[in-house]
Amino acid sequence: MFKLHGRKGCRCCGFGAPKTPPGIKAPANADKLIPVFSLGLQPLSNAFAKDDELQSAHYPLEVLFCPKCTLAQLSIVVPPEILYTNYTYTTSRSATMQRHFESLLSFIRSEQEPKSVIEIGSNDGYFLEYLKSQGAEHVCGIDPSENLSEIARKNLIQTICGVFDKETAHLAADCVPVPDVIVARHVFGHVDDLKDFVKTLDSISGNHTLILIEVPWAKRLLERCEFDTIYFEHLSYFTIKSIASLLDGTPFRIHKIHEFPVHGGALGIMLRRRDYESTPHASVQNMISQEGISKMDWELMGECSSRVVEKLVSLVRTAKAAGKTVAGYGASAKMTVLMNACKFTRKEIAFVTDTTPMKQGCCIPGTDISVVDPGMLLRELPDYTILGAWNFSTEILEKESLYRTKGGVFVNPHENAL
Ligand code: JHZ
Fold first, then answer.
1. Fewer CB in a 10 Å sphere around the end CB: N or C, the chain?
2. Atom number in ligand 1 closest to CA 329
3. How confident is the model over 83-120, as pLDDT tens digits?
4. Which residues, at least 6 apart from 230, have a Cβ–Cβ distance to it below 8 Å?
5. What is the 67 CA–ligand 1 centroid distance (Å)?
6. Domains, the chain, ordered by start
7. Does residue 73 contact residue 237 with C-beta atoms inside 8 Å?
8. SS3 of 381, please?
């Protein structure tokens, strides 16, 4: 239905890229990325559209590991126009996210006052709105999603609609020339050509510009077996070593790093120009020395993910056999991966609640399980409710205390019943 391609070689260090001209067979001992994890055929995690074809399309979800720089990347790339033009994921307006924004702003302020900011992948403009409320004077977002750019503009956040490339970057730079800060939260993992992305960053940043990227840290994904964060939007699973290697030969270096608890464990990585007058912060060396990720960590995570799936399937089967009802909470991309990995249908999972109006009335991609409004939890009182938004579990458990008082049990797929 649309053309997929696989990236030839590691997108950070180039390992495994063909050295022979097209049409000439590579030697048997040529460098190759190593397959380390597969979830088989999976649907697109955020294809909540009522478009049947998109909803039911399945593609191989396979991870390849680079033994040189320790990046892990998907074996295929779904074109961004398919994934993002009409996007259903909006930045959560939750207390957890509000706290994260506050920590992120303190982190930025430890280096630079963000008076003028460009945000790449600005979604519905929520973070820029927050920065404005905290004193930012000039802000501009860039986002490929038409529906979300429109929401941002309605909220008076200037937004350029499109993927981050030379053209959109320069339109943003017309609005905010030489920004104090460029932010890219959970965007790096979505980008196929990272070298080009870094080149474009170079073209719109000045000597004093601080670049802040936020990425999920592969170390935590592997330790905590967060396999449900592996889906088609996430093309890469970063280590600090792989990002350092991406920056080799570019005008940028890693300047400072801080780990945040958001989204299952993410890194805030500050980049500075190599000729910027200050030495890298001690956090860079400290954190690189803790990392040490190998192919074996990925293989062990694969085994662990099978156990998580088996445990969840068995819990649901036992509950159903005893005449109990099971639902889900949070139609996150992670929920799509979980439901499909467990091969659940509406026979097992009565419904999944979600606060996002765009997702309600649709089915979890690849399944016939309906997404409904959150009020359904108390109306139907399922005996068990699987948390798809486990990254917000503390907040959800507090918010839904009545459900638990009435006997409902939340199940964190990565832990036991809560
Ligand atoms: P949430 C997203 O992944 C999308 P997802 C994206 N691919 C990305 O990179 C990562 O984030 C970082 C709902 N919810 O944020 C809202 C409730 O219903 O974990 C969301 O649909 N009630 C760009 O999709 C979903 O759960 C609530 O109380 O895995 C959470 O999705 C709360 C707090 C959330 O991201």
1. N
2. 18
3. 877 777 777 788 999 999 999 999 999 999 999 999 99
4. 37, 39, 61, 63, 74, 221, 237, 337
5. 31
6. 5-78 (no CATH), 95-293 (3.40.50.150), 319-411 (3.40.50.720)
7. yes
8. coil
